[in-house]
Design a protein that fits this description.
heterodimer; A: 154 residues; alpha+beta; five-stranded mixed sheet; B: 716 residues; seven-stranded mixed sheet; globular
């Protein structure tokens, strides 16, 4: 039995310690917002925060997570009010939407540590997240907008 | 119904598309669930698409799959406009299989071909108007006034004196009235929602993880399935040993299916690990020696030796005679590779047995085919198979296939439990229905006055339609290999377009932009070659050859694209290439601006102009154009599936490379408002990216790229 802290709640899960965090979130805990895209850390669809840092949950065994706080898309805000979610709505970013949980989690980690990300900062932070629909222009605009919104809230 | 059918015929013809009657294999006996939709708690089943409840709520059954292209928003907007309610007050859900939901431009229930808005434009506005007419009639009867004295406004019918009855108050009375006769839809000048950008209705659910995709389905006692398929395409199981797999944690059952072996477990991770522990003796089947080289050789041999078998869908004058007469002819071979769709959501299907029926929760573009495939796999009549279409994590034509469905059905029947079967990324990349390869020959000659004496375009490659909808190719040359080819717009004294079918032994399928992407590459690159041969600027050359073109939209988008891009005025070190196309009733031209850095192409900017006629939601149009360009860029630069000994060599995004944030170019496209009928926009921009870039590469390097991807030439 492994104890995890998911979206602020301690949970005990009975899984093999090498089980990737992704499948614990999805199959054991029913948190379906974190997506499976490749299982190799190549696409970023499974991005969550562990201790505030964006990680690929498909490459993270639960045994490595320990009691570090895990935040998933469901825990980013209770009501889609996180600045990144607000900006994503304002710019109307998603198309198919499948990659967007991962994009949003990567973007949220970026603006948490960077109040005014440049294009180069955005490239560096977001290049691990593939969007097959090609929403990159709107993601870029939405990250800049989210940084503004976050600044206002601060 | 007869009125609507007649109307649909008219609307389809007026939609600017061609009418073909696709009969999907296995769907002939498909049941009609349309009638079963009448929900006893919903007094007004106005028609197959709209329900109005006594509380005033409106539900729209969307007969197109939402795969990112925005149909849940655009089609809801069309019915909302006529019903005079805000689009975001309407609850949308996916329609089941049903005769009423047949795509009138394609003849089957299909989301594809960039037809959704074109097909819905009259049909769904009329559906909204029908529902409104019923409510008006009910109010007129209630008040004892003529219907003409009433108007609909924001969910209510209003009298001249301002008295209102809400749709909810009228719903029961409206349900008792006979169906309205002829109804009229609003003129464009009266639109309050259509033509205006609004936030997509599905966006909120896609920001917080609640939008349910196929892969997200969960049911009590559900088992998770992982499927082992033969690595050699077309092979199958000879024998297998599951001793070790069965001993692994969480494993419940191992089921041999028609397409391989399914391991069922308590979680998908357990199922996948156990699947990889199966010892399977594969029968490689007929493709054991198939390779990219043998496929290429087969195409080359076909084009060289079987020309007499080619069909000729367009022949103006006698191009062969003109070429024989010409003192000099110009000829080039263009080649297109196999491509994978690479939807980010891997293929999956969830099957829930329910008594003598089964329910499928599946991301599909073809509800009727999904039903037929599941029925066949289960040995059930189609009416015992219920299809629930989920959100699609990308479609791009991949989900026009139903190959991932039978194994899920077979496993669920064997386990007599709900089963969610999910493919791995590697399964998905190595067992696609690939965009087929083509080898095309272009030949042309000039007159003494410098005009084109002959244009000859010979297409050689597989026909997806001959498998997917064989009845179509009995009636006509496969229309889905001829796009952006038979509608060659340029002035030439003699034109010949031919198609030679050559199959390659593996499954091939439709992919976003379909043959527009293959033909536009060859046609527009060869036009560039001709411009240089004539010592002319590639833009001016095309423009002059459109002088006698009866459709002005061709020339207009070409000119607007050149102006938008600053044609001929690229900054130092940058080079431009241009391409022009019509597809799906949309006219567009794109200009690529590139540089060559360390012998590699860098795409800085794609600009251009698009005329798609009437728009429903310009913001969605913009996103589709941009997304199509990014999709086309991945194919142009790197997209290639290769095969050795029958096995696909690319497995995941490391070897099948897609565009990432840092590689996405600046995009600057102007919408040209022509007032024409709606054109499709989900696909066409894909096709122009490769020729525009390759033409820019020639401008930069004088190296002509005649085969894709560009990486094959060391340039990407």
């Amino acid at each position: 039995v492994v104890t995890l802290r998911i979206n602020g709640n301690p949970v005990e899960v009975d899984v093999a310690p090498d089980t990737p965090l992704l499948w614990v979130l999805r199959d054991t805990l029913g948190l379906m917002g974190t997506k499976f895209g490749c299982g190799q850390g190549l696409c970023g669809a499974c991005t969550v925060h562990v201790a505030g840092a964006p990680v690929r949950s498909c490459q993270t065994p639960v045994s490595a997570v320990g009691e570090y706080a895990v935040t998933t898309i469901e825990g980013l805000s209770p009501d889609s009010s996180h600045p990144v979610q607000q900006a994503w709505l304002e710019i109307d970013v998603p198309q198919c939407g499948y990659c967007q949980s991962g994009q949003i989690m990567s973007a949220a980690a970026l603006i948490a540590s960077n109040k005014a990300p440049t294009d180069a900062d955005i490239d560096a932070a977001m290049t691990g997240n593939i969007c097959r629909c090609g929403t990159y222009d709107r993601i870029r605009a939405a990250i800049k907008r989210a940084a503004q919104l976050a600044g206002r809230q601060a | 119904m007869s009125t609507r059918r007649e109307f649909l015929k008219t609307s389809a013809a007026a939609g600017g598309g061609f009418l073909i009657a696709i009969q999907l294999p296995g769907c002939a006996e498909g049941p009609d669930e349309t009638a079963a939709l009448a929900n006893p708690t919903s007094p007004v089943q106005a028609n197959a698409w709209l329900r109005i409840d006594t509380d005033g709520s409106v539900a729209f059954l969307c007969d197109k799959s939402e795969m990112g292209q925005g149909v849940y928003t655009s089609l809801t907007t069309l019915v909302a406009e006529e019903l005079d309610v805000p689009a975001d007050s309407i609850r949308f859900e996916a329609a089941p299989p049903g005769a009423a939901y047949v795509n009138t431009l394609l003849g089957a229930q299909v989301t594809g071909g960039s037809t959704s808005v074109r097909e819905a434009w009259d049909k769904l506005r009329r559906a909204g108007a029908e529902a409104r007419a019923r409510l008006v009639a009910a109010a007129a009867e209630h008040w004892g006034v003529p219907a003409a004295a009433l108007r609909a406004e924001n969910g209510a019918i209003v009298r001249a004196d301002g008295t209102r009855l809400t749709y909810g108050q009228l719903a029961a009375a409206a349900a008792a009235l006979p169906a309205p006769g002829e109804v009229t839809v609003k003129p464009a000048s009266a639109f309050t929602q259509v033509g205006k950008s609004r936030t997509r209705l599905d966006t909120p659910a896609k920001l917080n993880g609640t939008a349910p995709y196929g892969i997200d389905q969960r049911f009590a006692n559900m088992l998770y399935g992982a499927l082992a398929q033969c690595p050699v395409l077309g092979g199958n199981v000879r024998a297998f040993d599951d001793t070790r797999a069965r001993s692994m944690p969480g494993v419940r059952q191992v089921v041999q299916t028609g397409s391989g072996v399914v391991v069922l477990a308590d979680s998908w991770w357990q199922a996948r690990q156990a699947r990889d522990a199966l010892q399977i003796d594969w029968d490689p089947g007929p493709n054991a020696n198939l390779s990219s080289a043998s496929i290429a050789a087969g195409l080359a041999n076909a084009l060289a030796t079987r020309g007499a078998e080619a069909k000729v869908p367009r022949r103006d004058g006698d191009a062969d005679a003109a070429l024989a007469r010409a003192p000099k002819k110009i000829e080039a071979i263009y080649e297109l590779p196999l491509l994978a769709h690479a939807t980010l959501e891997p293929q999956n299907c969830t099957v829930v047995p329910d008594g003598d029926s089964i329910h499928l929760y599946v991301p599909t573009q073809v509800q009727q085919s999904a039903q037929a495939a599941a029925a066949a796999a289960a040995g059930l009549p189609p009416e015992k198979v219920f299809i629930h279409t989920t959100y699609l994590g990308g479609g791009f034509g991949r989900r026009l296939e139903v190959d991932f469905i039978p194994a899920a059905v077979e496993a669920a029947r064997a386990a007599n439990a709900p089963v969610k079967l999910v493919w791995t990324r590697e399964d998905d990349t190595t067992h696609d229905y690939y965009r087929p390869p083509y080898r095309d020959r272009c030949t042309a000659a000039f007159n003494a006055d410098g005009k084109l004496a002959a244009w000859k375009f010979e297409i050689c490659g597989p026909s997806v339609t001959s498998r997917w909808a064989p009845a179509v190719v009995e009636q006509m040359v496969d229309p889905f290999v001829l796009e952006a080819a038979t509608n060659y717009p340029y002035d030439a004294d003699n034109v010949l377009v031919s198609y030679l079918q050559h199959e390659i032994g593996i499954n091939v399928g439709y992919m976003r932009s379909v043959s527009h992407a293959t033909n536009c590459f060859a046609v527009e690159c060869f036009m560039d070659e001709l411009a240089y041969a004539a010592n002319q600027d590639p833009y001016e050359f095309r423009r002059a050859l459109l002088d006698r073109q009866a459709e002005p939209r061709w020339r207009q988008v070409l000119e607007r694209a050149a102006a938008r891009a600053g044609w001929g005025r690229a900054p130092a070190g940058r080079f431009q290439g241009i391409a022009l196309m019509e597809g799906y009733g949309t006219f567009l031209s794109l200009v690529a601006e590139i540089s060559i850095e360390n012998d590699k192409v860098r795409v800085h900017k794609i600009s251009g102009a698009v005329d798609l006629g009437q728009m429903v939601n310009p913001a969605i149009v913009d996103s589709q154009i941009r997304g199509g360009i990014v999709f086309g860029l991945a194919s142009a630069l790197w997209g290639e599936i290769t095969i050795e000994n029958g096995v696909v060599q690319q497995k995941s995004f490391d070897t099948y490379r897609l565009v990432r944030m840092n590689e996405s170019p600046e995009i600057d496209v102007e919408i040209v408002e022509s007032g024409a009928a709606p054109g499709g926009i989900g696909e066409p921009s894909v096709a122009l990216v490769a020729p525009a870039i390759c033409n820019a590469i020639y401008a930069a390097t004088k190296q002509r790229v005649r085969s894709l991807p560009i990486a094959r030439h060391g340039l990407a």
